[in-house]
Write a structure and sequence with these properties.
With 162 residues, this protein is an alpha+beta fold. It has a domain at 3-96. It has 5 helices and 3 strands; from the N terminus they run E-E-E-H-H-H-H-H. The chain has a 3-stranded antiparallel beta sheet. It starts with a strand and ends in a 37-residue tail after the last helix.
Length: 162
C-alpha cells in the first residue's frame, strides 16, 4: 500500500470525496478529489460507498479509509442534495449511536451489513498467539458494583442456594 489516507471530506459542488493522503515513497502529502457520479438524493449510501472503495482508479488511495467513513461522507452528500444544512446532517450522524440501535427492526440486508461491520471490528481487535502482547491465561478481578436497587424477584424469600 503506497498511500496512507490522513483526512477525508466532501465537496458539495461538484459532489466529490476529498482525500488528503501521504505518499509513503516520497513522504509528501497530496490531495485527491474523487468525483461522485450517478448519485442523487435517493441513492443508497452504503452501496455508493462500496462502489467507490472498490473502484480500480481510487482503490489504492481509499484502502486505509473505512467503509463506514465513506458511507458517512455519502450521507452528508445525500443530505445536501435533499436540502439539509451541514449542521443538520452532522447532528443526525451524531444521533445515530450504533449501540442504541434496535437490530431486531432492521431488514435482512441491513442486519447482514451491521454484522459484517461487527466482525471487522472483532477481527481488528482480536489477539492471536503470534501477537506481541498476547497473554494465554488472563485473570481479572472485578470489584463489586453497588446494586442499583432491589428487584422483587431477587428477594422471593426462599434461599434455595442456586
Amino acid at each position: 500500500m503506497p498511500f496512507t489516507a490522513k483526512r477525508c471530506g466532501v465537496n458539495f459542488s461538484p459532489p466529490s470525496v476529498v482525500v488528503i493522503y501521504e505518499d509513503k515513497d516520497t513522504g509528501r502529502k497530496r490531495k485527491r478529489v474523487i468525483p461522485v457520479r450517478n448519485f442523487s438524493q435517493f441513492s443508497d449510501c452504503s452501496k455508493a460507498a462500496e462502489r467507490l472503495k472498490h473502484n480500480a482508479r481510487h482503490r489504492d488511495y481509499l484502502e486505509s479509509v473505512s467503509l463506514s467513513q465513506l458511507e458517512k461522507l455519502h450521507l452528508l452528500l445525500r443530505d445536501h442534495l435533499r436540502g439539509l444544512t451541514l449542521e443538520q446532517s452532522l447532528a443526525a450522524l451524531r444521533d445515530e449511536d450504533p449501540n442504541e440501535e434496535d437490530l431486531n427492526k432492521l431488514s435482512d440486508e441491513d442486519l447482514a451489513q451491521r454484522k459484517a461491520q461487527m466482525d471487522a471490528v472483532f477481527e481488528r481487535n482480536r489477539k492471536q498467539k503470534g501477537d506481541p502482547d498476547f497473554v494465554y491465561d488472563v485473570e481479572v478481578e472485578f470489584t463489586e458494583v453497588e446494586s442499583q436497587g432491589a428487584c422483587s424477584w431477587d428477594n422471593d424469600g426462599s434461599d434455595d442456594g442456586f
